[in-house]
């Protein structure tokens, strides 16, 4: 890979995740401030992205990969997406807002796979080269949080304006990315695109237990994505969006430990550590405040690295090992569909309903809201500890 190609791909990843980080983290706060949204409305809006996650594999696998150059369709999707992000600020009721976000999500989510495809097709050693490209996505999310936080934009429509501008910018830049022609010779079935060819993995008892646990753990994950920024702003934490990027910073740090720990302590202990971190995070949020327990709020944010990396990144690695070479792509698609699709859809609905049950005046009674995902993570951890049995040396299940 030439330095020019590396620079283009790094910029692509940085802007790709800057867009997501600019509007997604603070959407709940925006909806509360400008649309008088309930927790159910907020949960539904976040659930739109889960719906898009379930649908986008069909578009990428059956249409984009076969008939269009990846960089061109990515450019079109980002330009149209920028217009929709602007449109999100023009509506004044939660129903219209939901439909705008749903359509936008249907445009944005395929660009995740397209950006990965563009990057992989330019690499001669993806195992070594891709992490150095993908890390710029984390940097982009962090830069978005710092920008929104320090400019005090998180309660304003400007979060969407910033994301819209960068989306249009990336759209035009995409047309100048390395040419990634369609792979028309690949005949991809609907089952392959969605990952259903990997359902054979569920015959393997350890993987089946993990698979169910992964879906359930997305419920606690949904609470954080949907309501952490609302929570911190209600508590009066200054520059909440800027402080929340500590979670992404910890994610970038802890991911470096995963390859070493995966083989040293085993997949079961890695996953258990991830689930235990979810419990600890929400206990910190339940008992934290801006007085003497401010450190607990910071701890809850920083624990994101362990929460996410030790469960979900480890989960992707475990899935690849269990799947083997023949169905590994389908297996990763199935895992994404089950977690960021089905699991997050359930989680966003449940978290929204839970938040609505604890409304007090113009705010919330946050302690019981945060204890709910802590309880769920605790139950999943206990069941996982009792029923998950995996050999030290993981072999393919097929």
Short description:
It contains 15 helices and 2 strands. It has 398 residues and is mostly helical.
Distance between the termini: 34 Å
Q: Whole-number average pLDDT?
A: 86
The assigned structural class equals mainly alpha
Helix content: over 70%
CATH homologous superfamily grouping of the largest domain: MFS general substrate transporter like domains
CATH secondary-structure class of the largest domain = Mainly Alpha
Structural summary, described in words:
- The chain is globular, with a radius of gyration of 20 Å.
- The two termini are 34 Å apart.
- Strand 1 and strand 2 (363-364) form a beta hairpin.
- The protein folds into two domains: 1-177, Growth Hormone, Chain: A; 198-398, MFS general substrate transporter like domains (Growth Hormone, Chain: A, Up-down Bundle), CATH 1.20.1250.20.
- With 398 residues, it is an all-alpha fold.
- A two-stranded antiparallel ribbon has the order 1-2.
- The mean pLDDT is 86.
- The longest helix is centred in the last third of the chain and has 53 residues, at 304-356.
- It is built from 15 helices and two strands.
């Amino acid at each position: 890979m030439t330095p020019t190609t590396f620079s283009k791909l790094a910029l692509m990843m940085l802007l790709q995740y800057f867009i997501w980080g600019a509007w997604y983290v603070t959407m709940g706060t925006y909806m509360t401030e400008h649309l008088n949204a309930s927790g159910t409305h907020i949960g539904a809006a976040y659930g739109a992205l889960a719906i898009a996650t379930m649908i986008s594999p069909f578009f990428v696998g059956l249409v984009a990969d076969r008939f269009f150059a990846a960089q061109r369709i990515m450019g079109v999707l980002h330009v149209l997406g920028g217009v929709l992000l602007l449109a999100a600020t023009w509506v004044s009721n939660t129903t219209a807002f939901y439909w705008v976000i749903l359509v936008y999500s249907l445009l944005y989510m395929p660009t995740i796979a397209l950006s990965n495809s563009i990057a992989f097709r330019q690499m001669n050693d993806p195992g070594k080269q891709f992490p150095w490209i993908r890390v710029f996505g984390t940097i982009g999310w962090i830069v978005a949080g710092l920008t929104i936080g320090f400019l005090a934009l998180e309660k304003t429509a400007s979060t969407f304006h910033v994301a819209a501008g960068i989306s249009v910018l990336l759209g035009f830049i995409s047309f100048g990315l390395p040419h990634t022609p369609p792979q028309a010779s690949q005949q991809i079935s609907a089952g392959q695109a969605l990952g259903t060819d990997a359902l054979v993995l569920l015959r393997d008892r350890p993987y089946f237990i993990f698979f169910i646990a992964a879906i359930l753990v997305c419920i606690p994950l949904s609470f954080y994505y949907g309501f952490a920024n609302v929570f911190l702003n209600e508590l009066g934490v200054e520059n909440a969006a800027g402080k929340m990027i500590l979670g992404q910073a910890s994610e970038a740090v802890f991911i470096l430990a995963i390859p070493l720990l995966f083989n040293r302590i085993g997949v079961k202990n890695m996953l258990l550590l991830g689930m235990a971190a979810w419990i600890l995070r929400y206990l910190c949020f339940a008992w934290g405040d801006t007085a003497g327990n401010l450190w607990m709020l910071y701890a809850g944010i920083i624990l994101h690295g362990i929460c996410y990396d030790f469960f979900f990144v480890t989960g992707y690695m475990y899935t690849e090992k269990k799947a083997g070479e023949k169905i590994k792509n389908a297996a990763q698609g199935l895992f994404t569909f089950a977690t960021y699709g089905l699991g997050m859809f359930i989680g966003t609905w449940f978290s929204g309903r839970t938040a609505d049950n604890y409304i007090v005046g113009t705010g919330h009674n946050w302690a019981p809201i945060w204890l709910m995902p802590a309880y769920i993570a605790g139950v999943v951890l206990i069941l996982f500890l009792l029923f998950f049995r995996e050999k030290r040396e993981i072999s393919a299940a097929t």
